[in-house]
TrEMBL record, chain A:
Species for this entry: Paenibacillus phytohabitans
Cellular location(s): Cell membrane
Keyword Flavoprotein: no
Function: Part of the ABC transporter complex MalEFGK involved in maltose/maltodextrin import. Probably responsible for the translocation of the substrate across the membrane.
Family: Belongs to the binding-protein-dependent transport system permease family. MalFG subfamily.
Main location: membrane
Regions crossing the membrane: 30-52, 80-101, 139-163, 202-227, 239-258, 288-317, 338-358, 404-422
Protein name: Maltose/maltodextrin transport system permease protein
Key words of the record: Cell membrane, Membrane, Sugar transport, Transmembrane, Transmembrane helix, Transport
Alphabetical list of Pfam families matching this protein: BPD_transp_1 (PF00528)
Domain ABC transmembrane type-1: 203-423
Source species, domain of life: Bacteria
Membrane topology field: Multi-pass membrane protein
From TrEMBL, chain B:
Family statement drawn from the similarity comment of this UniProt entry: Belongs to the binding-protein-dependent transport system permease family.
Protein name: ABC transporter permease subunit
Organism: Paenibacillus phytohabitans
Record-annotated ABC transmembrane type-1 domain positions: 75-267
Keywords linked to the UniProt accession: Cell membrane, Membrane, Transmembrane, Transmembrane helix, Transport
Gene3D superfamilies to which the protein is assigned, alphabetical: MetI-like (1.10.3720.10)
Topology with respect to the bilayer: Multi-pass membrane protein
PROSITE patterns named in the record: ABC_TM1
């Protein structure tokens, strides 16, 4: 009995690719060897510094030093740059470990096959095998890398920031260093009166806003789609064309436009109300009316999207379902309730949840329209219509309270993700997705 | 009996038309208002009537001739970024959604949950990190950086929606093709792609519109004025002028909106026409 698999695995563990070559898979082996060589070259220079950087966040701030009697600025460690550089290196290291592990497993598997007497695959056969049986995974690889570097890495970075004291005025690099402080930021945010009052206030409005804006746009869109799709309504194409217009106008433009339209002094809305003998309303300047305004404007912007989506679903509902319902003598309402509504909900449940999440984080709708104003004197750097997201933005860019902003971001994320994940796993399109097929 | 049913449907249709007309007015009015404002002489936001006394093209001329606004350059920049990020983004989204809809593999549900969760993280919270990352790779102030960021973000937003759509394409079509000897890739290009045209159009449009609208990332990454996109330019215009030159803003807004609206006009048939009706039986 030959012991190919153990030997191949050990060889691969020592240096990637050796096991493959031992298994007579030369091209694959050479590719692995090249990967390991590149990795060694990269990690020898970077890995040590990465571990040092992530634990200390730099040791010497920039300072004045006397060089030949003249005071000179000496650049020190920039904590934030060090943090992100270390993070990138560690990320590459994790990727490398995964490849290394896969390489060992591969060597082991091929070795085991050889023990049963099967010759190992040629390179061409390996490629074919991947295309036929690992198709989904190889399809996901490219988007996966993009997501890893442009989404996951930044998120990890921001989570780390919440545990530092990276905030104005005392800890802004390069003049000063940033340190790890543990949960202090969270404690301040949730317990310290000045911060917690703002936090709970803004949180409440964020939730009200997300629920109202999602419901209004979704059911508004459904209503419009059904109205147009009714039997007997003429000029379907024209209605659709007209009602898509708000969607076709770029969102940023339409929000800036609405800001002018609802302008309390010169805006046309109040002008028309005046024609009917009604006094103008403080659309954007009164805390309550500003909230009403953002929801109305969001309906204008959001209903066409839902309408298009639901119209798309409506066309995919098999006609025979309706025919069957008609044979059974169903009324229009019954057809809607038994056929249309479940089909719409089934197909759009993921969208609905994403819209809800999107609305919690709907930065543009608030920031471009009201910029979070009117100002609320009781709040810490926040206005009456500020969502957690816009507050966070102001904290980062205007106030430089980066650690506080990160902590808010994390809490926000936990709330949204927890709720949505629970909800999503229960929706049909997740559990019984093969139902329609 | 027949007449009462006719009456009922008459009332139903009448009400529907009334609601549709009201909705149509609400949908058109703001767009019409800004279009007319862009032709209005003067600078102010206030105007006595909706339709101006006489029309002028001065604001449009100013956008392209004034040395302060490099509108033409911004326009070309945005178009370039939009086209490329749309192409790459749509391909990436299609890859993920096809894999998730048609294949059953081990970590599949985990992948879906991960996508869902990541999509919920406030986008620009990653701003600082992405900024530093791009700086590491010397990509700041380049259009390539924006294209990469937009395209890499596309699968997060679009995958689950696209997957929901692909799920509704009957699997019997795949199986029929497989029996005829089609490979995975063949099924993807010959069956899934043509049948998901409405979905692709939808994704392409959202992806294309993104760069015209996004000013947060664009403002952060593009530093020199010649490299700006229209969104950054418009944002800057509104912010520095504090709405004191409303008609100029209106002209810019029209120039941004018109091509996108024309695109919508051409593609809207595709957007809504599901192509599966009867395909399974056909």
């Amino acid at each position: 009995m030959q012991r190919y698999k153990a030997r191949a695995a050990v060889l691969s563990a020592i240096f990637m690719g050796l096991g493959q070559i031992y298994n007579r898979q030369f091209i694959k082996g050479l590719i692995f060897i090249a990967v390991e060589a590149a990795a060694l070259f990269y990690f020898i220079t970077n890995l040590g510094r990465a571990f040092w950087g992530i634990t200390t966040l730099g040791e010497s701030p920039s300072r004045l030093e006397k060089v030949k009697g003249i005071a000179k600025m000496v650049p020190g460690d920039h904590s934030i740059v060090i943090l992100i550089e270390s993070l990138i290196t560690l990320l590459f290291f994790v990727l490398f470990l995964i490849v290394w592990y896969m390489n060992i497993r591969d060597a082991h598997k091929i070795g085991a096959e050889r023990e049963t007497g099967r010759p190992s695959n040629t390179f061409k056969q390996s490629v074919r095998y991947i295309l036929d049986y690992k198709f989904a995974q190889s399809f996901l690889l490219l988007p996966g890398i993009g997501i890893l570097f442009f989404t996951i890495m930044p998120i990890v970075f921001m989570i780390m920031l919440a545990f530092t004291n990276y905030a104005a005025p005392d800890h802004i690099p390069p003049a000063r260093l940033v340190d790890w402080v543990g949960f202090e930021t969270f404690r301040n945010l949730l317990v310290l009166k000045s911060w917690s009052h703002t936090f709970y206030g803004v949180l409440t409005w964020t939730i009200i806003w997300a629920v109202l804006s999602t419901i209004t746009t979704y059911f508004g869109g459904m209503l419009v789609a059904l109205l147009i799709n009714q039997k007997g309504v003429r000029f379907k194409g024209m209605w659709r064309m007209i009602l898509i217009i708000p969607y076709a106008v770029p969102q940023m433009i339409s929000l800036l436009l609405m800001r002018n339209l609802f302008n309390g002094q010169f805006g046309p809305i109040n002008q028309y109300l005046g024609y009917f003998g009604l006094g103008g309303l403080p659309w954007l300047t009164d805390p309550f009316w500003a909230k009403v305004t953002v929801i109305i404007v969001n309906m204008w912007v959001g209903i066409p999207v839902s309408m298009l989506l639901i119209m798309g679903v409506l066309t995919t509902i098999p006609r025979d379902m309706y025919e069957a319902a008609e044979v059974d003598g169903a009324t229009n309402y019954q057809k809607f309730r038994i056929v249309t509504l479940p089909m719409i909900l089934f197909s759009t449940a993921p969208t609905l949840i994403m819209q809800f999440a999107g609305n919690i984080n709907n930065f543009n709708a608030i920031y471009l329209l009201t910029a979070g104003n009117p100002v609320n004197g009781n709040y810490q750097y926040a206005g009456s219509t500020d969502l957690l997201v816009t507050w966070l933005y102001k904290l980062t860019l205007d106030q430089n309270k980066n650690n506080m902003a990160s902590a808010i971001g994390i809490i926000l994320f936990i709330i949204v993700a927890g709720f949505s994940l629970y909800n999503y796993r229960r929706t049909k399109s997740f559990q019984e997705e093969d139902m329609i097929q | 009996m027949i007449t009462s049913r006719k009456l009922a449907s008459f009332i139903r249709l009448g009400l529907s038309y009334i609601i549709l007309v009201i909705l149509a007015i609400a949908a058109i009015y703001p767009a019409l208002w800004i279009l007319l404002a862009s032709f209005r002489p003067g600078k102010s936001l206030y105007s006595k009537t909706l339709i101006p006394d006489h029309f002028t093209l001065a604001h449009y001329k100013e956008l392209f001739t004034s040395p302060v606004y490099m509108f033409g350059t911004w326009y070309a920049n945005t178009l370039k970024i939009a086209v490329f990020s749309m192409l790459i983004g749509v391909v990436l989204t299609l890859l993920t959604s096809y894999a998730l809809s048609r294949f059953r593999f081990k970590s599949r549900k985990t992948t879906m949950s991960t996508l869902l969760i990541l999509g919920m993280f406030p986008g620009f919270m990653s701003m600082i990190a992405i900024y530093l990352l791009l700086k590491e790779f010397n990509l700041l102030d380049t259009h390539l950086a924006l294209i990469i960021v937009y395209a890499a973000g596309a699968p997060l937003g679009g995958t689950l929606i696209a997957k929901g759509f692909l799920d509704t394409i009957p699997r019997s079509l795949d199986e029929a093709a497989r029996i005829d000897g089609a490979s995975n890739f063949g099924i993807f290009t010959r069956i899934i792609l043509p049948l998901s045209r409405p979905m692709i159009t939808y994704m392409a449009l959202t992806q294309f519109v993104g760069p015209w609208v996004d000013f947060i990332f664009a403002k952060l990454i593009l530093r020199t004025k010649e490299n700006w996109t229209v969104a950054v330019g418009m944002w800057d215009m509104v912010n520095t002028m504090q709405n004191s030159n409303f008609t100029l803003f209106a002209a810019g807004a029209v120039l941004i909106s018109v091509p996108i609206m024309i695109l919508f006009g051409f593609l809207q048939r595709l957007l809504v026409d599901g192509l599966t009706a009867g395909a399974s039986k056909g």
